[in-house]
Amino acid sequence: MTYKEQLKDSRWINKRDRIIERDKYCQNCGSVKKLEAHHLYYIHANAPWQYPDEALMTLCHDCHKEETKYNKILKTKIDEMLKAGILSIEIIKKIDLHFDL
């Protein structure tokens, strides 16, 4: 099942709705429009619904889009530092960054 298909699964829909109900509004800007559940980190083998509630937060669509863009830039920079030998997986683990590297 692709990630896109997993987001249509009732287990994700139920979890997403529970997170949005818990938070009530965007945890970044306070908006109550177009709310979405955002994963604070990803674990390669986990399905979207297989995270503790504490690993999810509610963002509006616009903040979610910006956060996703920022995370992609950050991951690219981390990958570049890993390849250049400036950063190691051990350091990433110590600072508790959760990326699928």
Structural notes for this entry:
The chain has 101 residues and is mainly alpha-helical. It has one domain (3-94). Helices cover 48% and strands 10% of the residues. The protein has four helices and two strands; from the N terminus they run ααββαα. The protein has helices at residues 3-6, 10-23, 61-84, 89-94, and strands at 35-39, 56-60. It has a two-stranded antiparallel sheet with strand order 1-2. The longest helix has 24 residues, at 61-84. The chain is globular and about 45 Å long. It starts with a helix and ends in a 7-residue tail after the last helix. The mean pLDDT is 89.
How is this fold's topology laid out?
Elements: H1 3-6, H2 10-23, E1 35-39, E2 56-60, H3 61-84, H4 89-94
Antiparallel strand pairs: 1-2
Question: What keyword list fits this structure?
Answer:
101 residues; mainly alpha; two-stranded antiparallel ribbon; 2 strands
